Amino acid sequence: MKALHFGAGNIGRGFIGKLLADSGAELTFADANHQLVDQLNHAQQYRVHVVGVDQRIDTVSNILALDAGSEDVIERIAVADLITTAVGPNVLDRIADTLARGLLLRFERGNAAPLNVIACENMVRGTAHLKAAVLARLPHGYHAALEQCVGFVDSAVDRIVPPAAANDGDPLEVTVESFSEWIVDRGQFRGDIPQVDGMELTDNLLAFVERKLFTLNTGHIITAYLGSLAGYRTIREAISDPAIRLKVRQAMHESGEVLVRRYGFDRQLHHAYIEKILGRFANPHLVDEIERVGRQPLRKLGAEDRLIKPLLGTLEYGLPHAALVEGIAAALCYQNAADPQAVELQGWIAQDGVSQALSRASGLAVDAAVVGEIVEHYQALRQG
Ligand SMILES: NC(=O)c1ccc[n+]([C@@H]2O[C@H](COP(=O)([O-])OP(=O)(O)OC[C@H]3O[C@@H](n4cnc5c(N)ncnc54)[C@H](O)[C@@H]3O)[C@@H](O)[C@H]2O)c1
Ligand SMILES: O=P(O)(O)OC[C@@H](O)[C@@H](O)[C@H](O)[C@H](O)CO
């Protein structure tokens, strides 16, 4: 299997690339970071440090890396069997340009072999978004070929992988938690489903994507923003604070009740899932900085993302939502001069006031009652 993976970052090297290589794929990374591409090509391997109750170091070898903007990537798309991405939701549209060019070459050459594309990003239906962006760039005459030969497969991806920079010495080594989960939509593949150990198939993907994004990521982001307000540096420090842990657990329960009602998850099992996640946040072997988890607050305040979507669910079902409201208020307080979206958010608040800024980021009506609740909490947090 010829696999091309866009994004040789934390999750690319530490999770998806590793699973593909372990399953015997001929793996090529494509990345926009020239230095990283050079380092990968020089070493042709990297180490993955798996930390949990037990620890081990695995080596991923026989890999190749390409500059994401190079013609070699277009060639590679023309012959690939599987293409995956882990670049961040905001970068998918750029990948779509490259994918459309590679697919055009593939179709012009008459390659009608099945190809599957899986975006492994923290977003609901990320691959469907990528497909729409590719179609918008591909000449109409090739749309039927794309529908017939190319599977765009949505997925949910879960493994906590902090930046490689946390490791001393080896710039390519990644440290990952032992837990991992990659769930893909069985019905969206074209041709034979690739055999990748650790890739699970489901007929109910949306439920699993929302379960992951609106439990783990909802709890993670609230830990980050409350932790930042309290002056902590890492997620472990923040979640070890009993007051923060209580609020994070409450927020995950509020969001969880929406998931239980919407998808029929077993309530007790879901509560156990929440407790397991709280344990993962406290992993003593991971140094996961609040700055990473809190990154891009405007994305995180989006209507479809981990804060606002669960909140809207609680309103839909008439459920309690005080902890989610406090988490959103903490997001509005988030300051980080090194994060352009945090700077932009604070600029909006300074210029137009907090209600307008929240409405602009989230799509909530500025005069909605829940916006009033969030603003009240925001003011309390700012004073406290
Ligand atoms: N790290 C985690 O714990 C984790 C877990 C699950 C899901 N995710 C998701 O995985 C995705 C990647 O996250 P990450 O933590 O690995 O980020 P990262 O910043 O470590 O990696 C992203 C990589 O993409 C590369 N990149 C940027 N623009 C590119 C382009 N145009 N073409 C090719 N490569 C490009 C960057 O150079 C970088 O190496 C995000 O959507 C994130 O939400 C992350
Ligand atoms: O990657 P983001 O910015 O969407 O979210 C930050 C973290 O919550 C996230 O990367 C988690 O570590 C990951 O989703 C765990 O599976």
TrEMBL record:
It catalyses: D-mannitol 1-phosphate + NAD(+) = beta-D-fructose 6-phosphate + NADH + H(+). Belongs to the mannitol dehydrogenase family. This is Mannitol-1-phosphate 5-dehydrogenase. Its EC number is 1.1.1.17. NCBIfam families: PRK02318.1-2 (NF002646), PRK02318.2-2 (NF002650), PRK02318.2-5 (NF002652). GO terms for molecular function: mannitol-1-phosphate 5-dehydrogenase activity. Transmembrane segments: none annotated. Gene3D superfamilies: N-(1-d-carboxylethyl)-l-norvaline Dehydrogenase, domain 2, NAD(P)-binding Rossmann-like Domain. It holds the Pfam family Mannitol_dh_C. PANTHER family: ALTRONATE OXIDOREDUCTASE-RELATED, MANNITOL-1-PHOSPHATE 5-DEHYDROGENASE.
